[in-house]
Design brief:
Blueprint lengths: L5 E7 L2 E6 L2 H8 L6 H24 L3 E8 L2 E7 L4 H29 L5 H21 L8 H4 L1 H21 L14 H22 L2
Parallel strand pairs: 2-3
Antiparallel strand pairs: 1-2, 3-4
């Protein structure tokens, strides 16, 4: 049953996997309005793989994945948590990184096996290489609602973190920032205890002698 236009098809680590009713429409349009069912399936799997890349990064930073959705114009990983800007930028890169991994595998297969020898494999290659690469480029646009809006901020945040670490290291290297000398060992308590034991032993010897 559809709920707000979505059909639940499964779950991932407790989060529902959902498909919007517009997904078949989008697959048909991206498939150039041709009858290419293998491409349609690959379209769905690539979008799902992209969103699972986001979801994996969300869990990596111990936040909660609410749902993973696939629609006719892409997908959406809904999540909740108090993420830092640095974490949000890495979560944004998660989807593109997942697609890039798929692209490398597809290019490796093409290199080893050569061009596709059938229409079926041609549709798979079309989706895994050409369309996949196009989707990566679109997602890296620094505009909402694309991932590039937050993904590109990673490099600025990384430089700021490195700069902060260098400043801290310089402060710690200054002569005035030396660690305090360890506290000298104080054995006065041990000497007092030894003196008491000696007095007790002397009194015991005198008691035996009847002094």
């Amino acid at each position: 049953m559809l709920e707000n236009g979505y059909l639940r098809i499964g779950s991932w680590r407790g989060a529902p996997l959902r498909v919007h009713w517009t997904m078949p429409v989008g697959a048909f349009l991206f498939g150039r309005a041709q009858f290419v069912p293998v491409f349609w399936a690959a379209f769905f799997l690539i979008v799902l793989w992209h969103e699972l890349g986001h979801a994996a990064m969300v869990r990596r930073f111990r936040h909660r994945v609410v749902s993973v959705d696939v629609t006719g114009i892409g997908g959406l990983c809904r999540w909740a948590g108090s993420a830092t800007p640095y974490e949000r930028s890495l979560i944004a890169w998660g989807g593109v990184a997942a697609q890039a991994l798929l692209l490398v595998v597809a290019l490796g297969v093409r290199l080893l096996l050569g061009p596709p020898t059938s229409a079926l494999f041609g549709q798979i290659e079309w989706a895994a290489i050409q369309w996949n690469l196009t989707l990566i480029g679109l997602n890296l646009l620094p505009l909402p609602p694309f991932d590039g809006r937050e993904a590109w901020g990673f490099f600025r945040l990384w430089l700021e973190r490195r700069r902060g670490q260098r400043v801290l290291e310089q402060i710690l290297r200054k002569p005035g920032a030396r660690k305090p000398n360890p506290r000298p060992h104080d054995d006065s308590g041990s000497r007092e205890l030894a003196d008491k034991l000696a007095r007790i032993a002397e009194e015991a010897r005198r008691a035996r002698r009847g002094e």
